[in-house]
Amino acid sequence: MKSLKAAALAAAAALALSLSACGGASSASSTASANNPYGLITPGQFRVASVGDSKPYTFTDSSGKFTGFDVELFTDVAHRAGIDNVVFTGQDFSAILPAVSNGQFDVGVAAIGITDKRKQTVDFSDGYLAGYLTVLTTKTSGVTSADSVKGKRLGVVQGTLQETYAMKNFPNSSLVRFPDNNAAVSALNSGTIDAHFLDYEAAKDYVSKFGLVDAADIPSFDAPAGFAIAKNKPALKDALNKALKAAMDDGTWKRLYQKWFPGSPMPKQYLPASDQ
Fold it and tell me: Distance between CA atoms of 242 and 17, rounded to whole angstroms?
């Protein structure tokens, strides 16, 4: 009997220790979650997928550092959300949303237009940018308007809004897909394609740099750019939206827009109330 009693007491003690250990693990897990409220890959750091050739939105300077409107705006928004360690990594544009969705990156930042199709893969912050699409060409291509791309070889960057728009609105053009704008413009300069369809602001830089021609500017305000995040991260989305609104309300968005897009019209919905 004594041996049975002793065994029972030992089992009870073991059970108590087991429960105590479980309780300790649960507490540690809760503490880790509290230290990482946004569910980031590395607590206290934003790992950002971007592109390095989309001036003036996101691009790398002569030292290899990421800069541009989207980069500066997101860095400001991240600071307001309590994160100052922001690491940008270049990707092909078409790879950004899958990489964010599967957890390789915390955020995608590259003037990414918000569409219903893209929402099937990722979630988005509120919109922060809207603009124009441009048909870029050479002086000798014969392309002089949006209508004249019919029967022509038209470059697009795979996965972009320009590709979607061109598939719908330029059905009689031969679309040639590229991983980025630099590759497409190189093909344009060599005569491999007749025109390239890209963002208006990025096109301005190529016009200046290579003497290319802006053949047409098409308004595109139905898919504003947003920061892409993985689904089911409500705390992160809420923090980004609050910080983004604050950047608009205090004039930070306006200052950055004037810096990177001098002379371009500003959508009123992103300006401080006093400027609307």
Answer: 45
pLDDT in tens, the chain (276 residues): 434 334 444 444 443 333 333 333 333 332 337 889 999 999 999 999 999 999 999 999 999 999 999 999 999 999 999 999 999 999 999 999 999 999 999 999 999 999 999 999 999 999 999 888 999 999 999 999 999 999 999 999 999 989 999 999 999 999 999 999 999 999 999 999 999 999 998 899 999 999 999 999 998 878 899 999 999 999 999 999 999 999 999 999 999 999 999 988 888 889 998 886
Spatial separation of the C-alpha atoms in residues 258 and 267, rounded to whole Å:
12
Answering whether pTM is above 0.70, one says yes
What is the C-alpha to C-alpha distance for residues 93 and 164, in angstroms, rounded to an integer? 14
d(CA 190, CA 232): 45
117-122 long-range contacts, CB within 8 A, separation 24+? 117/164, 118/228, 121/97, 122/97, 122/228, 122/229, 122/230, 122/231
Distances (CA, A) of 191 to 134, 143, 152, 207, 211: 18, 13, 12, 16, 14
Q: Are 127 and 226 in contact (CB under 8 A)?
A: yes
Q: Which residues contact 103 (CB under 8 A, 6 or more apart)?
A: 41, 230
Chain center to CA of 3:
68
